[in-house]
Amino acid sequence: MSLDLLIPFGILLILVVYLIYSRSKFEKEIVEVYEEKLQEWKKHATTSKEKEEKPVKKLAGLVFKTGYKVSVELTDESARGMLEKGKFEISEIKKDK
Fold first, then answer.
1. Is the distance from CB of 23 to CB of 31 less than 8 angstroms?
2. How many domains does the chain have?
3. Which H or E run includes 15?
4. Both 7 and 30 in a single domain?
5. Is 77:61 a contact under the CB 8 Å cutoff?
6. What is the structure's pLDDT at 96?
7. Which of 15, 17, 26, 96 has the lowest CB atom count within 10 Å?
8. Is 62 helix (H, G, I), strand (E, B) or coil?
9. Comparing C-alpha atoms, which of 55, 57, 53, 54 is closest to residue 93?
10. Which domain holds residue 84?
11. Which UniProt keywords apply (predicted)?
12. pLDDT, tens digit, for every residue of 45-62?
C-alpha cells in the first residue's frame, strides 16, 4: 500500500525538480539577453545633453553712439538680414562697482 503512493510522489518530485531547473535556466537566458540589449543600447544611445548644443556667440559688429545717433558697424555680413528685420535683443553688460 505504501508503494502505491510512493510512485505518484516520486513522479511529482521529479516533475517539480525539472520545472525549477527549467525556470532558473530560462531566467538566466532572459537576463543575458536583456544585458546584451542594454549594452547595445548604451553603445548607440546619446544623451540629450550631447544633442543640445548651445549656439556659439560670434562677434558680428560693433555699436557706437555719437550724439543722438546710434550706428552699427558689421564685421560679419550674415547678421545684416537679422538687423534689418529687427530680430535682435538688447542686453546690458553689468559692471562691478
1. no
2. 2
3. helix 2-44
4. yes
5. no
6. 67
7. 96
8. strand
9. 57
10. 54-90
11. Membrane, Transmembrane, Transmembrane helix
12. 766 556 677 788 888 888
